Amino acid sequence: MNKDQLEKVARAMVAEGKGILAADESSGTIKKRFDAIGVESTADNRRDYREFMFRSMDAMKNHISGVILYDETIRQNAKDGTPLVKLIEAAGSIPGIKVDEGAKPLPNYPGETITEGLDGLAGRLKEYYDLGARFAKWRAVIDIADGIPTEYAVRANAHALGRYAALCQEADIVPIVEPEVLMDGAHDLDRCYEVTEFVLRTVFNELFDARVFLEGTVLKPNMVIPGKKAEKQASPDQIAAATVGLFKRCVPVAVPGIAFLSGGQSDVEATANLDAINRLRPLPWAMTFSYGRALQAAPQKAWSGKPANVNAAQAAFTHRARMNGLAAMGRWSQDQEKAAA
Ligand code: 5MM
To answer: Of the four, 78, 155, 260, 333, which is 20 to 30 A from 208 by CA?
Structure first.
């Protein structure tokens, strides 16, 4: 394990004013996104779509520290034959790879899942390193509803995250550790706090037990936020106070950075909440974004599969990347959002 390299990459992933583009939608998920804009999910369309984002130079150079890719994308070439990985590197951004094989039903625990993908992972990581990946991602999914999550499901998922992270570091790849507490339910902010606290404590216990080098990791969590169907929603200041307060109690300062998922928040909501979090500086870690939907919803809509729309779609992507870059420094405002739109 090259600890210096791991720490250097982890710090670069959360560099000031930059964050991560989560473009690792699996085939099923990207099909859903394309269905919504009336685009057929073919390999060429997926390539064209991701290519225009990676060629958005201003966004990539100034605001996107790294890109999480899916297995298909890390092997794909741009239309002119250049590997997509090279486009990312040319912009000074770091290629990464999703290595989990998805959340599958957990036997005997209705409504809960376990993320699979540990078998053969050591070999796959070696191959991904050779293809250019310098970090990886594994997502555990924890749902909140009546009677769930159970302690067993949280422990099983945390254990897998620990084993994944240790395998990554052995391959000189920085693990993004993503325990996602879903915001799909009707639960309130306090319930999200309680579940996220148990999840984070359990995950860090497993990382300690697996002897993971924390300085060479990045945490990708949910914010502490009420469920989408909750009667009472919360303001960015309330979400920021709950999130930072909880993380200070559960996340070791050896972790260089926390890169949030957007989890179904609207794009501007995800930016406003990240901004409120960074207005609570000084913080013990960099706190930035690793957004999928909140970075891509606008460019997807603007593109809608038409080559003539590529410039507008790149502008939409650049705008969201810039707004989130500002939020990652606590310097975003509604006025900038509107002025640049
Ligand atoms: C981009 O979506 C990622 C892959 O999802 P699937 O494996 O379900 O296809 C997803 O893991 C994503 O990286 C995180 O959920 C964060 O994305 P959001 O959209 O929540 O910011």
So the answer is: 260
